[in-house]
């Protein structure tokens, strides 16, 4: 029992105290180097255009071995014809393997707005982003957000390796344990390690998914050149129905008011008639 405890304790803390990979600093320095160069002509601000961050797409490389970078973007365009713009976007999706994950079409006439979320392979993000901006219309807002998770990913991978090694050692100890006390102690530690392994594996799968695909939110709204003089069709029969409905509502309210007066009238009439009777009787006695 004492020997077993001495073996278990160092193994339990070995993965916690394990140093991180010495290559983390190299990854970090390399992954942020592209942010310094923001001279890409295709992303410079222009008239009527606002952008949170200017980046050089040719410097943004998330598909290099070892790098884990999350990239997402947003683009807002004013277009003359919304349906035509959505059709053009579908053509771009087919070209770059973009998948529509959400569509929100709200408003009517000149106030109509279409918001679309696209899922795109991260290695085609820059091409797709630039192609969408070339859709016929005026770009009023554009943004690219980049998050480097390389260091955290390497840290998780290192911890996961240590935990799996610890699991193997605990399994071997469990096979040699003889007493029930030792078996339960090792099984308890083994379950804890396996739970942490599952947690780290889920975290790694999340990062893999987030760094393999990017998401771009695209918003289309009507430009001044696309505004129609007659925003909505005139529907006279519909107006007649609305007017009749309003009339019925007024009549119903009047009838309801009369019903309430009739129901509550005794509360007013009885005291009034009683007072009037008493006044007349007093006058009759004086006469």
From TrEMBL:
It comes from the Bacteria. Residues 68-276 form the DUF4349 domain. The chain crosses the membrane at residues 257-279. The keyword Transmembrane helix applies. Keywords: Membrane, Transmembrane, Transmembrane helix. This is DUF4349 domain-containing protein. It comes from Candidatus Dojkabacteria bacterium.
């Amino acid at each position: 029992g004492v020997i077993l405890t001495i073996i278990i304790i160092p193994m339990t803390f070995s993965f916690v105290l394990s140093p991180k990979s010495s290559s983390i600093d190299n990854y970090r320095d390399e992954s942020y180097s592209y942010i310094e160069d923001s001279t890409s002509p295709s992303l410079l601000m222009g008239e009527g255009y606002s952008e949170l961050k200017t980046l050089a797409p040719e410097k943004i490389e998330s598909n290099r071995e070892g790098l884990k970078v999350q990239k997402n973007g947003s683009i807002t365009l004013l277009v003359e014809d919304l349906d035509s713009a959505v059709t053009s976007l579908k053509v771009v999706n087919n070209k770059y393997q973009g998948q529509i994950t959400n569509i929100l079409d709200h408003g009517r006439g000149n106030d109509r707005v279409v918001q679309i979320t696209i899922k795109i392979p991260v290695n085609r993000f820059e091409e797709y982003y630039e192609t969408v901006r070339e859709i016929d219309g005026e770009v009023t807002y554009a943004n690219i957000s980049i998050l480097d998770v390389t260091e955290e990913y390497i840290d998780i991978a290192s911890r996961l390796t240590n935990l799996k090694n610890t699991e193997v050692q605990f399994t071997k100890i469990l096979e040699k344990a003889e007493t029930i006390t030792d078996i339960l102690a090792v099984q308890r530690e083994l379950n804890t390690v396996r739970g942490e392994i599952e947690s780290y594996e889920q975290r790694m799968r999340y990062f893999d998914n987030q760094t393999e695909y990017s998401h771009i939110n695209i918003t289309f709204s009507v430009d001044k050149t696309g505004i129609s003089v007659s925003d909505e069709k005139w529907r006279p029969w519909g107006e007649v129905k609305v007017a009749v409905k309003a009339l019925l509502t007024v009549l119903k309210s009047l009838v309801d008011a009369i019903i309430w007066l009739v129901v509550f009238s005794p509360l007013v009439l009885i005291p009034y008639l009683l007072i009037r009777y008493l006044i007349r009787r007093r006058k009759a006695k004086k006469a």
